[in-house]
Design a protein that fits this description.
With 159 residues, the protein is α+β, with helices and mostly antiparallel strands. It has one domain: 2-Layer Sandwich (Alpha-Beta Plaits). A hairpin with a 4-residue loop joins strand 2 and strand 3. The longest helix has 19 residues. It is elongated and about 50 Å long. Pathway: Cofactor biosynthesis; molybdopterin biosynthesis. It catalyses: (8S)-3',8-cyclo-7,8-dihydroguanosine 5'-triphosphate = cyclic pyranopterin phosphate + diphosphate. This is Cyclic pyranopterin monophosphate synthase.
């Protein structure tokens, strides 16, 4: 299969999606922030000096997903109908699992928007906690699931 964002001359190319059918499209992306027990406790107890870390990161993730086309040059500007950011505080493994779900009715998928949303939320968590733990690590950012369009449903668990 050829790369869709490269034309026959090897040049960058924004794909023409005008002939594609409008379908409901959805994607879920996830990533993790590994942090110290102290930083995690401050997030969980809402006692961080910068305020409600999860609330700010949620809004940032939503904004990030909506700004995807401004950040990734060949992405189409999309009118997202839903962006949902969820956090799971995993004390045992000292991490915050961040998940972004994006949805729309359109002609192209929303994987890049979900990935952008999760990354911006993770970066915001990092920014808000860096004074307590500058050694945090962002990892395992990936698409978990997508659906819609001619390829239908795809899930990481199903390959």
């Amino acid at each position: 299969m050829a790369l869709s964002h490269v034309n026959q001359h090897g040049e960058a190319n924004m794909v023409d999606v005008s002939a594609k059918a409008v379908t409901t499209r959805e994607a879920i992306a996830e990533g993790e922030l590994h942090l110290s027990a102290d930083a995690l406790a401050q997030v969980k107890n809402n006692s961080a000096a910068k305020g409600d870390v999860l609330a700010v990161a949620r809004i940032a993730g939503i904004q990030g997903a909506k700004q995807c086309a401004n950040l990734i040059p060949l992405c189409h500007p999309l009118a997202l109908s839903k962006v949902d950011i969820q956090f799971t505080v995993d004390e045992e493994n000292q991490r915050i699992i961040t998940r972004c779900r994006c949805k729309l009715n359109g002609r192209t998928g929303v994987e890049m928007e979900a990935l952008t949303g999760v990354n911006v939320a993770l970066l915001t968590l990092f920014d808000m906690c860096k004074a307590v733990d500058p050694a945090m690590v962002i990892s395992n950012v990936r698409v978990l699931e997508k659906q819609g369009g001619k390829t239908g449903h795809w899930s990481r668990d199903e390959g």
